[in-house]
TrEMBL record:
Gene: NIPSNAP2
Name the record gives this protein: NIPSNAP domain-containing protein
Family classification: Belongs to the NipSnap family.
Record organism: Astatotilapia calliptera
Keyword field contains Transit peptide: yes
Keyword Phosphoprotein annotated: no
Principal location: mitochondrion
Pfam families hit by this protein: NIPSNAP (PF07978)
Keywords: Autophagy, Mitochondrion, Transit peptide
Role according to the record: Protein involved in mitophagy. Accumulates on the mitochondria surface in response to mitochondrial depolarization and acts as a 'eat me' signal by recruiting proteins involved in selective autophagy.
GO cellular component: mitochondrial matrix
BP GO terms, sorted: mitophagy
Residue ranges occupied by any NIPSNAP domain in the UniProt entry: 154-251
Record localization: Mitochondrion matrix
Length: 253
């Protein structure tokens, strides 16, 4: 009996320190994404056989812009790059679908009937070692990516967050992005919906590697940046940086 009383008292005492979980009323995609737009993004990572990279680039430069400019397809090629530093012999393509999932489905169905695109897919398959993609939404507090003149280099910083921390990340970066807009380097910010989940991608543009270094160092001189870094680093499980060079016909030069 004494043992039961002790266990009961111990359980009651511990309950005083258990954090109450407040249930969320909405998905984080609804809380963080832009409500005025119904845009869906797809990012593609293609690992190319080293000896095929030039031929792969020529193939993409011939076919992808024709889809981008065709009004029959409710999609846009936001940017297309080769990785310069990071994973080598890799191509990265970013597409925007205006109209969300229905637009994505419409484009996919039409491309299956596009003879030139199907030939492109067959040729592309011979040149690749592997490929993967993700479907993304854009953060409401980032600007929508728009074409910009070049030449620029682009940095894609990808973060794998701990599950359950996306809202917290968004709250800090909603303030941080104002600090990082001083030199117009912010291009776009996205979070995954399908593919590897709890993934965030931040896309930045710089004139060269030295301007990247200067811009990033200057952020530490602005109020609030150190706090953002301090509180967001514990949310990250893994992070990766790619420096990318635009392909010839990329809208982001």
């Amino acid at each position: 009996t004494r043992s039961l009383k002790l266990n009961s008292t111990s359980s009651w005492f511990k309950s005083l320190f258990v954090r109450k979980v407040i249930p969320r009323k909405d998905a984080h995609s609804h809380l963080l994404a832009k409500k005025e737009d119904n845009n869906l993004y797809k990012i593609q990572f293609h690992n190319v056989k080293p000896e095929c990279l030039d031929a792969y680039n020529e193939l993409c430069e011939d076919v992808l812009p024709s889809i981008h400019t065709d009004p029959e397809y409710p999609c846009e090629l936001v940017g297309t790059w080769n990785t310069w530093y990071g994973e080598q012999d890799q191509a990265v393509h970013l597409w925007r679908y205006r109209g969300g999932y229905p637009a994505l489905t419409e484009v996919m169905n039409k491309l299956r009937q596009n003879k030139k695109f199907m030939e492109y897919r067959n040729e592309r398959g011979k040149m690749l070692l592997s490929r993967r993609n993700q479907l993304l939404l854009e953060f409401s507090f980032w600007n929508e990516p728009v074409p910009r003149p070049g030449p620029n280099i682009y940095e894609l910083r990808s973060y794998q967050l701990r599950p359950g921390t996306m809202i917290e990340w968004g709250n800090y970066w909603a303030r941080a992005i104002e600090i990082r807009q001083q030199n117009q380097e912010a291009v776009g910010g996205f979070f995954s919906q399908i593919g590897s989940l709890y993934t965030v991608h931040h896309l930045w543009a710089y004139k060269d590697l030295q301007s990247r270094e200067n811009t990033r160092n200057a952020a530490w001189q602005r109020d609030g940046w150190d706090e953002v870094v301090y509180y967001t680093v514990p949310l990250i499980q893994h992070m990766e940086s790619r420096i990318m060079i635009p392909m010839k016909n990329s809208p982001l030069k």
